[in-house]
Amino acid sequence: MNPRWSWTLPLCAALLLGACAARPTPPQPGADGAAAPTGTGPGPTLDNLPTYLSLVRQMQGNGLWFASLAHIDALEQKWGASPDSRLLKAEALRQTAQWSASRRLYEQLLDTPVRGAAYRGLGLIAGSQEDFPRAILMLEKARQLLPTDGLVLNDLGYAYLLAQRFEEARLPLMQASELLPSHPRVASNVALYHLSTGQPEHARRLMAQRALSPATRQAIEQLALVLRPGASQPAPSSSLVLKSAQRLSQASLAEAQATKPQ
């Protein structure tokens, strides 16, 4: 069975947690309104494209999605659009719920060197709009192009879990767990896989090793019960799956924020 449901929050949270794991210090606005580099000594200036792109990525890593859109417009006015700047804009548009504009940009990037990331973005947008088969299709294309990207693998494995396609979830999740062994969201999803496939001891051992919070553990266990109902129980409704998935996402996000470097 492949139920359809909205999964915006779970997968958006998964993306955000990738940045939360190692958040840089947010750049501060300078006198001209541009983001000034941080640090005690002379920092880089914004007089070249690679430096400006790096600072925009830093802003996005800190969740400053709306501000990053303004800076992307500024750098493209000065240096013109590039696949890298277009990808940053597509990501920011998606994170600010501007789905149509974001999708158009991702589609324009499918013939560029950043097409793997573009497929990933299209997959996440499809999921947010309840087009579940397309979401998995796009994430699979992203995996083909970015086979060692742990976050892509984690997103794909989680998507398969929510679709109750447990066998297909196993490989990408196990790969993600070895590529990103310290990532809390990956650990949560692997534990969810173990519980959903009747391996509670493996799940409890992993949750203990990763020192997952009680709230995260409880959310994982509740979602596993929803995804793997007993033989005499009806299939879970989309609203119940969504509610349980959101609870896990919120718990994982809170855990990542609590453990991030200060």
Automatic annotation (TrEMBL):
- Organism field: Hydrogenophaga taeniospiralis CCUG 15921
Q: Which InterPro entries match?
A: TPR-like_helical_dom_sf, TPR_rpt, UCP029658_TPR
Transcription regulation as UniProt keyword: no
The name under which this protein is listed is Tetratricopeptide repeat protein
Phylogenetic placement of the source organism? Bacteria, Pseudomonadati, Pseudomonadota, Betaproteobacteria, Burkholderiales
Arranged from A to Z, the UniProt key words for this protein are: Signal, TPR repeat
**TPR repeat ranges?**
116-149
Signal peptide interval = 1-21
